[in-house]
Specification:
The complex is a heterodimer of chains A (339) and B (385).
Chain A: E1 15-27, H1 29-40, E2 44-49, E3 52-54, E4 72-75, E5 78-87, E6 100-107, E7 114-118, E8 131-136, E9 147-151, E10 169-181, H2 184-194, E11 198-202, E12 209-210, E13 216-217, E14 222-223, E15 229-232, E16 235-244, E17 258-265, E18 272-277, E19 290-295, E20 319-324
Antiparallel strand pairs in A: 1-10, 2-3, 2-4, 5-6, 5-8, 6-7, 8-9, 11-12, 11-15, 13-14, 16-17, 16-19, 17-18, 19-20
Chain B: E1 6-12, H1 24-38, E2 48-52, H2 64-68, E3 79-82, H3 88-101, E4 107-115, H4 121-124, H5 138-154, H6 160-172, H7 187-191, E5 195-197, E6 200-201, E7 210-218, H8 220-224, E8 231-240, H9 254-266, H10 272-275, E9 278-280, H11 288-295, H12 304-309, H13 326-329, H14 333-349, E10 362-369, E11 374-381
Parallel strand pairs in B: 2-3, 2-4, 9-10
Antiparallel strand pairs in B: 1-7, 1-8, 4-7, 5-6, 8-11, 10-11
Helix pairs in contact in B: 3-14
């Protein structure tokens, strides 16, 4: 790890990688639902809008916003390419893993074009005005990917048996992997966690110590540098907490109620919020409790979930557990209200 | 303010856990078309559209303004998107009002929505979003310690939150659009409901809803020709503060106090408790009613709970709060703030139906978002200020 010179816009070389992923659903409604149901059954529908036929169909007139009545018209299966672009290096999410074209295809009987994939031998096989035809896939689920287009002469017949029921909801696994470089102050905080230490920052303006530091005093808007870093104790006082009963959702790892506490480390003026505590029974946890962070062995520590966010609660995956120090509780009047 | 602004049309959807009968477009259009009908207008009469929704992770739609432009009749017109977390419904209405007040437009359609069933709210508020904050354990996990701190600070009786929830849930029974309508709800049902985020019980928590809200705003000339009584915007205010800094008062945030002060000043209000007839405020967890009563200067610090206890905030109290059942009863997050603004406008217009406060002449709409850090508020009255 190398940290470049401190500065507001300078970033460190402490990359962290995250994947954001969720199976979103889409309620298809009275127009896209029948459109995808028809695709599953090997037909392509447009919708009448005044004197035009829109394909893909919309629930409303795109010019005026007026609701369209569900007056569907079967279009295609062949049509003309209006514009196209060649995808020489498809990505993981593209409809084909070999090179293909994305094209605006105006189907016979429709007045608007649909963006879709055309499987052609190469860019030389593509041209504006060329005729293409729908090629339905063997396995269809009621999705826009049930079909693709090929040069009209290449289309082969597929026997299509209509499916059962209406397609009403579609599911899309949306996934994004991204890398984030930590700001220098955050990188030092992360490095501290890896070293088994809590690194905060003391404001040169009013002397208050925040953890983690932001690299600046957020109220005075004054830059803080490595010279303002302070190492804090691994002991502190629980100042507020909640018991969380986990709700289940995809990716949820918690199953049992657990304590989420704000811990006011000795020497800090800001609580380390939302520290999950599993080692102390929920009914024994209380405000004022003295706690000590027990770090994992160095080889087992990681800071994979530390990022640059301004509302950071994470201490990475470096703490084995928070355990009571055995000292008497701090009376409420002796610790500031910190959440 | 160069021009007066009035609410001349209000529309909202039926709110529900899953509106599987409509697409996102259909949901938003259901509210928009009801507001247009209420105002005696069509999309063609509208000069500009201002939309709002809460964090993008809820539906995975990054640019709702782009997605909704043609479905809201905005083709060839200005369209804006506003984003201030949970307060967005309020700030969206304020941006729309400012376009009228500044004399830029005569008639503005403003819409906000959330279709929470397209993902999961707790996931969307816990996941690490690229280059943004994570909330770790949903909104409840974030706000529970604040409530605990308020309880300690104020010495409020432990059942205050249950009483708020009971009142709001009973009010919701009078609101035909409410998501949660719990017939026969009583104190014990709420008290015995599971503790989700201690001290927040299940029935003291807002639901996740699919829903939308819309308003048509117009200037004085437009309002005078409106088919129904308008609600005149007397003042709007927004304030912001950072989520975390050493010494921050998260229970009674400075930004909220300042926002209310400047709002009352602009509206010529010196004694809000006396001069305001009723409020629709953003209470996603029951305890936020007493907390916001203090933050909004209706009660001295640590005494907000007394208003709940004395029945002041009940439908027949001297300052009814959340007559519609509030966020506790319907929570399409992006729309929740606008629902507060629209419900209070309907009170002033005499259009609130069974949950109407008799003779309401001046009302407060309030929304907050983020970690209690974005505030948006408006005062509406039955006459122009």
């Amino acid at each position: 790890m190398a940290i470049k010179q401190e500065g507001v816009l300078t970033i460190s070389e402490f990359p962290t990688t995250f994947t954001l992923e969720y199976p979103y659903t889409r309620t298809l409604g009275p127009v896209i639902g029948p459109f995808l149901t028809a695709l599953r059954d090997g037909r392509i529908l447009g919708i009448r809008c005044g004197s035009r036929v829109l394909c893909p169909p919309l629930e409303f007139d795109p010019d005026t916003g007026e609701t369209l009545s569900p007056d569907f018209v079967e279009v295609g299966p062949a049509g003309c390419v209006e514009f196209w672009t060649w995808i020489a290096e498809p990505s993981r999410k593209h409809p084909f893993q070999e090179p293909f074209a994305f094209a605006q295809v105006k189907l016979d009987g429709a007045d608007t074009a649909m963006t879709h994939a055309v499987k052609a031998a190469g860019p030389e096989a593509m041209s504006a005005g060329m005729r293409v035809k729908a090629q339905f896939r063997e396995e269809r689920t009621g999705a826009i990917t049930d079909v693709y287009f090929v040069p009209e002469g290449d289309a082969r017949d597929v026997a299509i048996a209509p499916g059962e029921g209406e397609v009403a909801i579609s599911t899309h696994l949306i996934s994004l992997t991204f890398e984030e470089n930590l700001y220098p102050s955050r990188a030092r905080y992360a490095q501290g966690l890896l070293d088994g230490k809590f690194i905060g920052q003391r404001s040169p303006v009013n002397g208050t110590v925040s953890i983690p530091g932001k690299g600046y005093d957020p109220l005075a808007r004054v830059l803080m540098t490595e010279a303002d870093d302070v190492e804090l104790a691994s002991t502190g006082t629980a100042t507020s907490f909640t018991v969380i009963t986990p709700i289940q959702y995809k990716g949820q790892t918690e199953t049992e109620p657990y304590v989420s506490a704000s811990i006011f480390l000795d020497g800090a003026d800001q609580a380390l919020s939302m520290q999950n505590i599993y080692s102390i029974p929920v009914d024994e946890f209380r405000e004022g409790m003295r706690l000590r962070a027990i770090f994992k062995p160095a080889a087992e520590r990681n800071v994979d979930n530390v990022d640059n966010s301004w509302m950071i609660f994470t201490t990475g995956n470096v703490i084995e557990r928070w355990e009571p120090t055995g000292e008497p509780d701090v009376p409420p009047e002796e610790f500031p209200e910190q959440i | 303010m160069a021009e007066h602004c009035a609410v001349i049309g209000v529309g909202q959807t039926q709110h529900d856990a899953k509106r599987i009968d409509v697409s996102q477009y259909g949901l938003v259009r259901e509210a928009a078309e009801r507001a247009l009908e209420d105002a005696g207008m069509t999309y063609a009469d509208i000069d500009a559209v201002v939309v709002g929704k809460a964090p993008d992770m809820f539906e995975g739609v990054m640019m709702p303004e782009l997605m909704l432009a043609d479905s809201l009749g905005a083709v060839g017109k200005p369209m804006l998107r506003v984003h201030t977390a949970g307060s967005v419904g309020g700030s969206t209405a304020i941006v729309a009002a400012s376009l009228i007040q500044a004399g830029v437009h005569d008639r503005v359609l403003t819409v906000s929505y959330e279709k929470q069933s397209e993902s999961n709210a707790m996931w969307a508020l816990s996941v690490k979003v690229p280059f943004q904050q994570g909330m770790v354990a949903g909104a409840g996990g974030y706000f529970a310690p604040l409530i605990r701190a308020y309880m300690k600070r104020s010495g409020a009786p432990e059942d205050t939150g249950i009483r708020v929830a009971l009142k709001d849930r009973q009010n919701a029974l009078k609101n035909p659009y409410a998501h949660l309508k719990l017939e026969g709800i009583d104190f014990d049902q709420i008290a015995n409901s599971p503790m989700l985020w201690d001290p927040i019980r299940y029935l003291e928590t807002c639901p996740s809803s699919d829903g939308a809200c819309a308003m048509v705003l117009g200037n004085a000339a437009v309002a005078k020709k409106a088919p129904k009584k308008p609600a005149w915007v007397h003042a709007t205010a927004m304030r912001t503060e950072p989520t975390m800094f050493s010494g921050r008062d998260q229970v009674n945030p400075q930004a909220g106090q300042d926002c209310a002060r400047v709002l009352y000043k602009k509206a010529g209000i010196s004694d809000p408790r006396k001069e305001i007839d009723c409020c629709e405020i953003y209470v996603p967890f029951s305890w936020f009613e007493p907390m916001w009563m203090e933050n909004l200067h209706f009660a001295p610090e640590s005494e907000g709970w007394k208003m709940t206890y004395e029945g002041a905030t009940a439908l027949d109290g001297d300052l009814p709060v959340n007559m519609s059942g509030g966020v506790l009863s319907s929570n399409p997050i992006g729309a929740s703030g606008m629902l507060r603004f629209a419900e209070i406008a309907n009170q002033i217009r005499g259009e609130a139906g069974e949950h109407q406060v008799d003779g309401a002449k001046k009302g407060l709409g309030h929304a907050y978002g983020g970690g209690s850090q974005f505030f948006s508020m408006w005062i509406v009255g039955d006459q122009p200020l």
